[in-house]
Amino acid sequence: MNPDLERLHPYPFEKLKTLFSGLPASDKSPIALSIGEPKHPSPDFVQQVLKDNTHRLSNYPTTAGIAELSEAIGQWLTRRFHLKQVDAASQVLPVNGTREALFAFTQAVIDRQRHPLVLMPNPFYQIYEGATLLAGGEPMYLPCTDSTGLQPDFDAVSEDTWTRTQLLFICTPGNPTGATLSKAQLKALIQLADKYDFVIASDECYSEIYRDKPPTGLLEACAEMGRHDYRRCVVFHSLSKRSNLPGLRSGFAAGDSEVLKRFLRYRTYHGCAMPIHHQLASIAAWNDEAHVEQNRALYREKFDAVLDILGGPLKVSAPAAGFYLWPKTPISDEDFAKRLQAEQNVTVLPGRYLSRTVNGKNPGEKRIRMALVAPLEECIEGAQRIKALLDTL
C-alpha cells in the first residue's frame, strides 16, 4: 500500500463521531449545523433537464466534456468576473465537483522529486492537505486569525519558503471563516507566483453566497492586470453551493490553458468524465441567475435571525460570504460541541478539527463551525438551544 496513506488525518466527521461516542440519547429532535451540505431545494428546471436527457446514459462522455458546457461556463465567468475574454476550449475544464478536482489537480501539478512545499490556509478544507501528502508534497499551514483578517498573512512567508513553493491553495471566501481576499491581495499573490514560479489554485466554491458585495475572483484580478492568459492561475467553482446541486457533482476548473492541458491529460487517465445528462443540466444552471439570487436571500434571512439570537451571548459576526459562522466559544471547542450535543442535540464542528497545530498554536481552538444550511425554523431553534447552553456556562 502507498505509505503516504498512513499520513492522512481522520476526516473531521470521523473525529466528531469519536468525540460523541457514548453520549446518552437526547429526547430533543436533532439539529445538524455541522455539515456544509446545502438543504435548499434544487432548481426544478435543472431536475427537468436531467429527466429529459436520461437517454444520454447510453453515451460515453468525454473527459473534456461537450463544447456547449465549456462555452456556458466561459460566458458565466465573463459576466460574473468582468473578464474581457475566456477561451472556453482551452481555459475551461468541467469537473465532477471541486473536491475531486482539487485532489486530482494537486497530483498533476506537484513534482515530488523537488521536495515541494504546498501552502494552504489554516484552518482549511482537508482535501488540500490529503492531496498534498499523496502527491509527495509537504503541507505548510498559514494561520488565519483575527489579527490577519481570518486569511493568511502572506507578507509573513519567508523568501526561502516561497522559493520551495510549487502550489498555493487559497480559499476565498474561506471555509470555515467566510473571509475574502481583496483584489490587491490577489494581485500581490499573482506577482509572487511569477517571481517564484508556482501555481495558484483558488477555491471559490462559496463565491455566490454573499450578503452585499460579490467577492473578487482570482481571474478577475488577472484580467485587471492585463493577464488574459491567466498564467499560473486556476480557479475552481461548483454548482453544489451556488445552485443547491451537491448531488450533481458538477463544477469546473478554469485559467491557465497550459496547466489545464496537462491536467486534462491526467484526468483522461484518471477516468473522471461527467455524464452527459449532468452536463446538460449544468448548462441550464450556469445560464440562470434568478435561482441564485433567491438562494442568497434565504441565507441572508437565516444569518439575520441567528445573529439576532446569538450576537450578544456569543462572540460571532456575519461573514463576508459563505454559509458558515465561525464563533469563539467560552470553553474548549471540543467540550462546547460535546455539551451542546448531549444537552441540546445540536451538532456543530469543533474548530480544531479543521486546523493543524503549528508551533504550539491551533487557530481553530475555542471556535466552532456552524453551517446554516438547515431550514430557517430549524436554524432559529438551533440558535435558541445554543443560547440555552451558553446561559449555563
What's the short version?
The protein is an alpha/beta fold and about 400 residues long.
Description of the molecule:
There is one protein chain. By secondary structure, the chain is of the alpha/beta class. It folds into two domains: 3-41 and 291-390, Aspartate Aminotransferase, domain 1; 60-288, 3-Layer(aba) Sandwich (Aspartate Aminotransferase, domain 2), CATH 3.40.640.10. It has 15 helices and twelve strands. It has helices at 12-20, 44-52, 67-81, 88-91, 98-109, 126-134, 159-164, 183-196, 218-224, 239-242, 257-270, 276-286, 290-310, 333-344, 376-390, and strands spanning 31-32, 92-95, 117-122, 138-143, 165-171, 199-203, 233-238, 251-255, 324-325, 346-347, 349-350, 368-371. It has a seven-stranded mixed beta sheet, sandwiched between helices. A three-stranded antiparallel beta sheet has the order 9-12-11. It has a two-stranded parallel ribbon with strand order 1-10. Strand 5, helix 8 and strand 6 form a beta-alpha-beta unit. Helix 14 (333-344) crosses helix 15.
Helix content estimate: 40-55%
Instruction: Tell me, briefly, the overall form.
Output: globular
> Strands of the largest sheet, in order across it?
2-8-7-6-5-3-4
Helices, by number, come to 15
List SSEs in N-to-C order.
Answer: HEHHHEHEHEHEHEHEHEHHHEHEEEH
Structural class: alpha/beta
Q: Kindly, what is the distance between the CA atoms of the first and last residues, rounded to a whole number of angstroms?
A: 47 Å
The CATH architecture of the largest domain comes to 3-Layer(aba) Sandwich
- Mind telling me the CATH class of the largest domain? Alpha Beta
Average residue-wise pLDDT: 96
CATH superfamily of the largest domain: Type I PLP-dependent aspartate aminotransferase-like (Major domain)
Radius of gyration: 21 Å
Residue share in β-strands: 5-15%
Q: Fill in the CATH topology of the largest domain.
A: Aspartate Aminotransferase, domain 2
Annotation, overall tally of beta strands: 12
User: Could you describe the largest sheet, including whether it forms a barrel?
Assistant: 7 strands, mixed
Give the count of structural domains.
Answer: 2
